[in-house]
Amino acid sequence: MKFTYEVEQDNIKIKTFLAQKGISKRLLAKIKFAGGLILVNGQEEIVTHMVNSGDTVEITIPSENPSEKLLAQKYPLDVIFEDEHFLVINKPARFASVTSSVHPNNTISNFVQDYLIRQNYENKKVHIVTRLDRDTSGLMMFAKHGFAHSHMDKMLQDRTIEKKYYALVESSDMLEKEGEIILPIDREEGSIIKRCVAESGKQAHTSYKLLEKKDDTSLLDIKLHTGRTHQIRVHFSHLGAPLLGDDLYGGSINKIQRQALHCHSLEFIHPFTNEKIKLEANLPEDMRNLINE
């Protein structure tokens, strides 16, 4: 995969110039030692070569092979967006995002690995940008090469990727028409999974709007400003409004057998085209049926 840049300043080393373009030291080492190439005005150069305004720098990033540890498994993906840099799918509930000792296969990563191989893309390594809990549905982003992944990691750190969720929660007097929840979250003592609101935790910020209320169920539109583990589930449970189906945090499982949480919106500035990308995924049937019944 090739990328071309025009230099706009004098007396700058190639490695410094490329760092300004988002090329990490790790990726630069891969270009140098794993079959990549750096050209300046058509001539191969080393990373310490000085470039000047008007020079053209072209980099070739070596292709990435699929991981030998990740089994490719066929499953029909609901592709919402795709270009040469990114893949965004609408993840169904009940599938883990990544493999683990508990879920060694049949994960979204296995399915995307198969998709990349069958499409015969130049890069076949799976790069997860945003992941979702096993029982959460909705938009999930993958980068199609390491350079795209590093760009999106930086955007996640800078909080310039906007994610919004629909959630069905148990109605609570503590819920307002719209509000902000700014409460720290830490791991619950004695548990390796469960989180809780605790002063010892990391700051977490969630905002929400009440879209609809029906009997003892409320439909919320939620925006994450931070990305703590189980953040939405913990914050609303703390308000006495646990997600339906979320038995880990006190939600009733009488109406739905998974936490009623769906990532419906993903918005970001495309790092390679500078376009504003806004993607949507409709409320899934199991959650829609609950609010319509």
From TrEMBL:
Species annotation: Floricoccus tropicus
UniProt KW keywords: Isomerase, RNA-binding
Family: Belongs to the pseudouridine synthase RluA family.
NCBIfam families according to UniProt: rluA_subfam
Protein name: Pseudouridine synthase
Signal peptide range: none
EC number assigned by the record: 5.4.99.-
Catalytic activity: a uridine in RNA = a pseudouridine in RNA
